[in-house]
Amino acid sequence: MITENMPLIDRNTLRLPASAEYFAELASESELRALLLDEAFFKLPRTVVGEGSNLLLRADVPGLVIRMAEKGLAVVAEDDEFVWLEVKAGECWDALVATTISCGWQGLENLSLIPGSVGAAPFQNIGAYGVELADVLDSLSAIHLYTAERRDFSCADCCFSYRDSIFKSAQKGEWVITSVRLRLNKSPKFSLGYADLKARFDQLPDSQRTAQAIRDMIIALRQSKLPDPKVLANAGSFFKNPIVSAEQHQRLQRHFPDLVSYLQSSGDYKLAAGWLIERAGWKGRRVGNVGMHEKQALVLVNYDAATGAEVSEFSRQVCASVNEMFAVLLEQEPVVLPVVI
Ligand code: EPU
């Protein structure tokens, strides 16, 4: 179904006002390919959206805005240890997590309550509490936005890194993901690298150490820190945690002994952007309609009727002040649309 001048305010969790020139919601790959090859839309720019939980809409989006709505989940292979699941892009990510746990499959529990669709998950390699999509993704299928070519990407082809993939970098704006294949464990194999999670898990009696228990803990942790977008508009973490060299880390630590950082396998350090932003004085600070959240300084919130321009200006001020204090450049996490204004 195609709608002209479709308002997007209810389709982005930051609730920014913008519209799509043509909004197409598609229920199958064949519908998608027919649209992409339709001469009536041939010269238009094309953009893909999911549930809008990681979007910064700066202005109206020209051309075709495509959302894959196809649902479905099937076991495509199985052995003694693993199950391979194929999931269509239009499924809700958290509903998928809940379903896999109730089927007795493990691997997604740490990624509970992340908003958004299954198709959007690979774009930014969603991650939380020590697990990333890259850890469980076997492969995915995508259709090229301009040629309608169908291609399978292995996990390595996706070039995943922290909150990044080929779809957000080298081949940005080229593909629409139509389905993903995940490899899940049939027996318990939990990721407890996140200290707060491990501490809570270790307190449980053996009989209660289940994927469902981890899911419940993650839900409680997220709900205690992150504002519910249905109550207070936001797009989750608004900045990435910056990665700095060991030398820069050492310099920073000399000035700020309580700096929060995590050593990476590369020898670099990931800094907690929330800590930097809080230290720079932005936690709970509001300018007009926009602010950084009072419980988690990494989450930018739209209190009331903010525009994309207001959000961008506020974000620029936060970045400038963090850069001035720490000489660290913050990078925005949400996808900015339209690409050109
Ligand atoms: N911190 C502060 N002040 C704050 C917030 C955080 O000092 O206001 C410091 C604390 O020391 C805290 C540390 O930063 O211990 C880390 O905070 P938290 O555990 O809340 O995680 P995060 O690094 O702020 C990342 C992800 C989240 C994910 C959590 C848990 C990014 C950009 N964000 O946040 O992902 O849920 O870890 O794994 O990597 C998202 O991407 O939208 C998202 C919510």
Structural write-up:
- This protein has 341 residues and is an alpha+beta fold.
- It has 3 domains: 2-68, Uridine Diphospho-n-acetylenolpyruvylglucosamine Reductase, domain 2 (2-Layer Sandwich), CATH 3.30.43; 73-185, Uridine Diphospho-n-acetylenolpyruvylglucosamine Reductase, domain 3, CATH 3.30.465.10; 233-337, UDP-N-acetylenolpyruvoylglucosamine reductase, C-terminal domain (Uridine Diphospho-n-acetylenolpyruvylglucosamine Reductase, domain 1).
- The mean pLDDT is 97.
- The protein is built from 7 helices and 20 strands.
- It starts with a strand and ends with a strand.
- The strands form 6 sheets. Strands 6-7-12-10-11 form a 5-stranded antiparallel β-sheet, with no helix packed on it.
- Bound molecules: uridine-diphosphate-2(N-acetylglucosaminyl) butyric acid (EPU).
- Uridine-diphosphate-2(N-acetylglucosaminyl) butyric acid (EPU) binds at residues 128-129, 225-226, 236-237, 240-241, 260, 272, 274-275, 278, 283, 296-298, 333.
- Residues 128-129, 225-226, 236-237, 240-241, 260, 272, 274-275, 278, 283, 296-298, 333 line the site of uridine-diphosphate-2(N-acetylglucosaminyl) butyric acid.
Briefly, what is this?
The chain has seven helices and 20 strands.
